[in-house]
């Protein structure tokens, strides 16, 4: 089994769906605007937030993993300057917003939306992405759609996260930025460590063939989308865009694929994907997705741990906190 096939299986399990999404599936739980949304909790910032801080937001679909939120929040708030987070809670028990947690960032930066398990539809991740843009897109120029095990990094000292996005603002042919993965394996850890960034410092290797366009593991992308160009979430990786706009890579190269960008480059920006973490956390991930053990999932673990050359990647360990 290839990594692409294994990832597709895990993603399908995570959202308990089979088959492909269609427009009706994605929209059936949606609402027309923010005022009609239910089960939302806002932490209002009474001091106000300037336009620069509202420039970009993150939309995150999550179930139960409240323990992973503080480090993820802290990294993106303090090291990338992102000041707005929309947390789409897919039926956590109890709702994550009800827990008394120190997230390490101002609560005013966080908005929770809770989806009851009994009222959820098919392909909820894509529905959540549609809701994020429908409800809050007008507040921001860009929204990033990433997961709790994914951490953005600006890889050049000469740019900021906002600065990278602003370099595409005036190009109306650009509707989204596709960012290549940097996949991390377990580092041989059996139990959950205190810090993701400090602990998982071994990454999957990009072969020289990737310079000419290949199929290495890190050719997957996730998207940061211009809210004015958003039309639909096609899959967790790429989005429908209006007026012929395109998804491009960091160098302005057009991404034609539905999920991949080759050759892989991470000269300006990278998305660190901690796809398995420790063995304990990987097994928990499978249990969250499916109450029955699926032996095919071990192929994903085996691929990440044993079948692909690795390199040391300690750049994320420099961030403290």
Automatic annotation (TrEMBL):
<dbReference type="Pfam" id="PF13704">
    <property type="entry name" value="Glyco_tranf_2_4"/>
</dbReference>
<protein>
    <recommendedName>
        <fullName>Glycosyltransferase family 92 protein</fullName>
    </recommendedName>
</protein>
<dbReference type="GO" id="GO:0016757">
    <property type="term" value="F:glycosyltransferase activity"/>
</dbReference>
<keyword id="KW-0812">Transmembrane</keyword>
<keyword id="KW-1133">Transmembrane helix</keyword>
<dbReference type="GO" id="GO:0005737">
    <property type="term" value="C:cytoplasm"/>
</dbReference>
<keyword id="KW-0472">Membrane</keyword>
<feature type="region of interest" description="Disordered">
    <location>
        <begin position="1"/>
        <end position="48"/>
    </location>
</feature>
<dbReference type="GO" id="GO:0016020">
    <property type="term" value="C:membrane"/>
</dbReference>
């Amino acid at each position: 089994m290839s990594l692409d096939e294994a990832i597709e299986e895990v993603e399908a399990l995570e959202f308990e769906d089979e088959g492909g999404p269609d427009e009706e599936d994605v929209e059936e739980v949606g609402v027309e605007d923010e005022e009609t949304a239910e089960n939302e909790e806002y932490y209002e910032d009474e001091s106000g937030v300037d336009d620069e801080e509202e420039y970009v937001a993150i939309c995150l679909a999550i179930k139960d993993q409240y323990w992973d939120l503080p480090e993820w929040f802290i990294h993106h708030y303090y090291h990338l300057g992102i000041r707005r987070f929309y947390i789409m809670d897919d039926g956590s028990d109890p709702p994550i917003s009800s827990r008394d947690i120190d997230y390490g960032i101002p609560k005013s930066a966080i908005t929770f939306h809770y989806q009851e398990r009994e009222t959820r539809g098919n392909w909820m991740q894509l529905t959540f992405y549609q809701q994020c843009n429908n409800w809050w897109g007008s507040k921001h120029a860009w929204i990033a759609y990433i997961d709790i095990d994914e951490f953005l990094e600006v890889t050049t000292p000469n740019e900021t996260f906002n600065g990278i996005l602003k370099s595409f603002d005036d190009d109306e042919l650009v509707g989204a930025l596709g960012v290549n993965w940097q996949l991390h394996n377990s580092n041989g850890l059996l139990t959950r460590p205190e810090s993701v960034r400090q602990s998982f410092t071994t990454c999957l290797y990009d072969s020289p063939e990737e310079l000419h366009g290949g199929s290495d593991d890190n050719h997957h992308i996730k998207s940061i989308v211009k809210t004015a160009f958003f039309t639909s979430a096609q899959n967790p990786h790429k989005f429908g865009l209006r007026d012929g706009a395109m998804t491009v890579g960091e160098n302005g190269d057009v991404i034609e694929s539905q999920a991949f960008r080759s050759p892989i480059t991470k000269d300006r920006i990278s998305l660190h994907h901690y796809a398995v973490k420790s063995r304990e956390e990987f097994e928990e991930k499978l249990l969250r997705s499916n109450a029955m053990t699926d032996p095919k999932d071990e192929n994903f673990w085996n691929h990440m741990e044993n079948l692909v050359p690795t390199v040391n990647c300690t750049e994320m360990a420099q961030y403290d906190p």
